[in-house]
Amino acid sequence: MKNCEYRQIEPQGLGTPNAAPPPPAGANDADTRAKRRRKWEVFPGKNRFYCDGRIMVARQSGVLPLTLGLIVLTSCLFFVFDCPFLVEHVTSCIPAIGGALFAFVIISLLQTSFRDPGILPRATADEAAYTEKQIDDSASSSYRPPPRTLEVIINQQVVKLKYCFTCKMFRPPRTSHCSLCDNCVERFDHHCPWVGNCVGKRNYRFFYAFIVSLSFLTAFIFGCVTTHLTLRSQGGKGLITAVQESPPSCTALELIVCFFSVWSILGLSGFHTYLVASNLTTNEDIKGSWSGNSGVQNTVNPYSYNNIFANCCAVLCAPLPPSLIDRRGFLPTQESPPAAQPQVELPVFVGKSDLTVV
């Protein structure tokens, strides 16, 4: 499936505004650069930015430190209290395996949390006015509200595009507006409080890698702790004695955290594996967009290749699209109204086959 490309039209490309007056002679370039502001400083969504806009997270990201804390604390207890005994009695490869899984989990989590999930830039004032004018012209009568949906055909399947009143544009296919982040996210899956970010087109593969690797890490630690207690309980010793010989509070904490985490994480990994194999999103699965639960009969998923391997490659191995919001770009120093009405075209959506607007 070819990726859809959307480009925000810059204000200088909308017309032929009057040229800004040149700076006075002898002006200091350093002072001019210092006065310029970056786009992340006036970003309209509910996001927080760090490191001069290089890192962005959701404003409600209070659960992310808890996620990091549980992973780091459980892993540290495992490396400190279980690994020395297992290296002596089982194999010296256990710390290497655990360290590799731990590093992969942390990297995947940070990539998911701090990356732009696929936010679409909001329409400019000229683009919004042009779209509203088209909507008003398409109204059939004066007493009926203007239509706020467009119908497109993707792979012989009718897909409705809804108008976003916040972003002032028709949402591209598979795009939804997140109420927590106040952004339209391309290929929106869901908003995950555990990673402190939306999960969309640009970070879904990292989210999937995170939950799958976390499943392996949790199961690995749970198995190693169980093996540790089993070996200590041999030789006529009971399980209670084995727990008392090892640091009791640490061992109990590891067992409790891993026992309750492994089942939920394994279930989540299995659910998203099903979504990847079907080329679905959590949002589409919950709404039943292609299962007939949405009220439309004889619907099929137009984005599926009807092949598990092809769907997995399309979701996890397709080229990663660039960020469209240009959060570290500079704001224009001076904006002037365009001299002519901009000719803004609606984005073209390309699916597996030719797409026709109805």
UniProtKB/TrEMBL annotation:
GO BP annotations, alphabetical order: protein targeting to membrane
PROSITE patterns the record matches: DHHC (PS50216)
Entry protein name: Palmitoyltransferase
Keywords, in A-Z order: Acyltransferase, Membrane, Transferase, Transmembrane, Transmembrane helix
Topology with respect to the bilayer: Multi-pass membrane protein
Transmembrane segments: 63-81, 87-110, 206-231, 251-277
Catalytic activity: L-cysteinyl-[protein] + hexadecanoyl-CoA = S-hexadecanoyl-L-cysteinyl-[protein] + CoA
Pfam family, one: DHHC
Spans annotated as Disordered: 11-33
GO molecular function: protein-cysteine S-palmitoyltransferase activity
Domain remark from Swiss-Prot or TrEMBL: The DHHC domain is required for palmitoyltransferase activity.
Family note: Belongs to the DHHC palmitoyltransferase family.
Cellular compartments per GO CC: endoplasmic reticulum; Golgi apparatus; membrane
Position of the signal peptide: none
EC number: 2.3.1.225
